[in-house]
Design goal:
8 helices; Rossmann fold; alpha/beta; 17% strand; two-stranded parallel sheet
Length: 242
């Protein structure tokens, strides 16, 4: 029996790459990967091709290329990268293009990687947080959260995968502990005694694979994922032991 094709955007990145590896590492998987990338000639894309992955060129800004990339697939994993362009508006436009292409291709199951729209908790009128460009509180959250409705309106069978803070950010995103005047390493987060949900980026892809394997069970639902919910003190203690 032919395997069901899952088109994976961000296939050479953290989230999409995790899903690609989860599928490839399961010899009994019912799915086959179609890696969607703007740069099929990149070293990462070539490495996937060597593992037998179908690599297809497409651009999230080009709905026509996405329609071609999704054609014949069973499902798709859809993710945008705010940090590539720092534009929530662009993320929303890319989500709209992907939803349009998914509907056109008749995909049976789409997983949309999303975050909370913080404006539902902290309205624009709340001065405790700055309002950016007149409409965002936390742009890389708000854009994805606003885009959730696009998939509903398009009638695409969707699971909304509500992700969380990458633990890798504590090492590679400028948030790593810094050496103070006393020579000790320290990091500061404005959390008080609150807990921070977080997850290893690789586990996001693994979670997406688990959702796909459950068939239609999570279509139409939001699935929140986190590996742990430590306080700042607990994170500091873990880093101290590492």
């Amino acid at each position: 029996m032919a395997k069901k094709i899952i088109a994976v955007t961000g296939s050479t990145g953290a989230q999409g790459g995790g899903l690609v590896r989860a599928i490839l590492d399961d010899p009994a998987s019912e799915f086959a990967v179609r890696a969607i990338t703007r740069k099929p000639d990149s070293d990462k894309a070539k490495a996937l091709a060597k593992r037998g992955v179908e690599v297809v060129a497409a651009d999230l800004d080009d709905v026509g290329s996405l329609k071609r990339a999704f054609a014949g697939a069973h499902g798709a994993y859809l993710v945008t990268n705010f940090w590539e362009h720092f534009s929530a508006d662009k993320e929303i436009a890319q989500a709209r293009a992907m939803a349009t292409a998914a509907k056109d291709a008749g995909l049976r199951h789409v997983i949309w990687s999303t975050l909370e729209d913080t404006r539902k908790r902290v309205p624009l009128s709340d001065s405790r947080m700055p309002t950016l460009h007149g409409k965002w509180k936390v742009p890389h959250f708000d854009g994805k959260g606003e885009a959730d409705q696009i998939f509903k309106d398009a009638g695409v069978p969707t699971t909304w995968l509500l992700t969380s803070f990458y633990w890798e950010n504590l090492l590679y995103f400028g948030m790593n502990p810094k050496k103070g005047p006393d020579g000790k390493l320290a990091f500061t987060l404005p959390m008080g005694n609150a807990k921070l949900p977080g997850i290893a980026a690789e586990d996001i892809g693994r979670s997406a694979y688990g959702i796909l394997k459950r068939g239609s069970e999570f279509i139409g639902k939001t699935v929140g994922i986190a590996g742990d919910h430590p306080t700042g003190a607990q994170m500091a203690a873990s880093l101290g032991k590492a």
